[in-house]
Structure formats: structure tokens, C-alpha cells
Amino acid sequence: MADEIRWGIIGTGKIARAFATALKDTPGAVLTAVGSRRMDSALAFGADFALPDRACHGSYEDVANSADVDIVYIGTPHPMHAENAIMALNGGKAVLCEKPFTMNRREAEQVVALARSKKLFLMEAMWTRYLPAIEEVKRIIATGEIGKPRQVSADFGFTAAVDNEHRLLNPELGGGALLDLGIYPLSIAAYLLGPVASVQAQAEMGATGVDVQTGFVMKHEGGGMSVCSCSIQARTPAELTVSGELGHIRMNTMFHRAPSISVSLADGTSRTVPTPFTGNGYAYEAVEAGRCLQEGLLESPRMPLDETLALMGVLDTIRDQIGLRYAADAARWPEGADI
């Protein structure tokens, strides 16, 4: 692998633009292709990111098959992730796939099996896993300063003033609070406390049939417990606290963009640790993917594929419990099945 990592982006929406912006802050990364279902959209995206017209494609397949691309970032709507990842892998490309990785575990298993059979790098773009704040939290936990971590509490919510056709509320686009927001506290709770042993969930469902608020409590195999919630109806503090026998660590303001963390101990002492991040924060996942490619790894040790599969299974269980079903589940839940 050359020192330069050549990136292709599939999709031209908000998240794809955020990732393309982050590549400017990623050492050794260069954007070499973008693909859209419409050529005018690809050209507009390319113009905004200084791509020549020849690097802008009116199809996703052209990016997957481009000789100028080492790794494809998938930033399309949720229900397209599995199809697009399979297409990129069949094109011989490494893949960084935006969360949620797929719509369900069944799809995720198909994508992972293909990557492993082709010996190609694959990683879920859970960008919060790579931020300085979460790594500092992990480091402090490892020192034993707060004792054995026993509980995580995390919320993530904002008020979505959108109509029913917007992707956040549209079931055909994988809408709902859980897949868009709840996946963040779920993933970080598992990162801090270990694999999920069991989960119990409740939700408020909206008029379009997707969840607008969901809360879930998880027991972890290591004995800890996490309490998580997500909402597209309430602007929550979006904080995360991990507590142990000797104190707690709080990721301040919005945990997914925490500029600092606070450590408070049972002896009354406390301190604040600055955790600034570069740009919009997405560069860190690009750095990790690039590092893995440079080192010849097929998956990231910080977001292993088996953990991605396990978390997709937890999401399936939560959706079973709250009655949230998507078209992609038809093979798992046949028409008329009682969930």
C-alpha cells in the first residue's frame, strides 16, 4: 500500500459531505472519486471538493470499479448500506460503511462474510469510537482511578422539525431515533463495559411507524449495566457518564463531540481534562481506516467486525421488543408474522 490512501465516496448527502470535509484534515488521505445516482449531484459535490469532472460519477458502480480508489466510504441512506458495501467489495475495494452498518444482523453477516472471503478490509464508521475524548475515558478506566466500571448512562436526543417524508421519519429510508441516534450510546456502552448480555427496551412510536423515542437498559457480560435513551422529539443533554466503585467520568456537553471530560472521585476531588478534536471529528475514523490499510489489517481492533455483528443483533432485539420493522426484515419476519 502506498503512503497515500485514495478515497472514493458513495453518496452526496450531508454525511458524505461531512466525511469529505474531514478527509482534508486526514494525513495521507486524498479524495479521488465520488458517485451519485445523478451526474449533476456528483458534479456539484466534486466542484465543492476540488475534484475534476472525470472523478465524478453518475453511478455508484463506477466508484466501486475505479482503479483510482483504494477504499470506499459509504454514505448512502441506511437501507442501501448492505447493497453498496457488497458492490464495493465485489469491486475489490476496502470499505468504510456509515452506521448503522446495515438494517439488521442478517444483512451484516452477509457483508462481513463477503469481506472475509475476499480478504478485504471492512469497518463500521462508528466515528465516536475514535475521538480523543473516548480514548481518554478508556485510558482513565484502565488506570483503575474510578475502580471497576459498573454503570454507564447515556442519552442522545434532538428535536427534529421535519415532515414525514424526511429520512428521520420515513421507514423506507430506515428512519427512527434508534438507528440514527440510539446506536451511539449503545456502541459506546459496549465499548466501555463489554459485550451485551441482555437488553430491555421501551419506545414511543410515531405516526409513520418508526420510533421517535426509545429507552433501553442493558446488562453486560462483565457484570455492568448501562441505561441509554434516544429521541428525535427532545433536545437532551447528550452526556455520557461511566461510574465505578471509586468515582465517575463524565463526557461533557455532547459526548459525541466532547471538548472535555470530568473526573469526580469519592474522596471529593475532581478535575477536568481537555479533549479537543480536529475539524468536525470525522477525521479520526479515516485515520484509523488508513492505518489499518497501511498495516495490512482486514479489520480495526477498535471496531472489530464481530462486535459490529453483535451490536446489530442487539439492535434487532430492541426492535423486536418495540415493534419496529423495516422492509429489509422481510426475510426474517415474514409478512403477517407477530413480533
UniProtKB/TrEMBL annotation:
Residues of the GFO/IDH/MocA-like oxidoreductase domain: 135-250
Keywords: Oxidoreductase
InterPro entries registered for this protein in UniProt: Gfo/Idh/MocA-like_OxRdtase_N, Gfo/Idh/MocA_domain, GFO_IDH_MocA-like_dom, NAD(P)-bd_dom_sf
Keyword Glycoprotein attached: no
Pfam families: GFO_IDH_MocA, GFO_IDH_MocA_C3
Family the UniProt entry places it in: Belongs to the Gfo/Idh/MocA family.
Protein's name according to its UniProt entry: Gfo/Idh/MocA family oxidoreductase
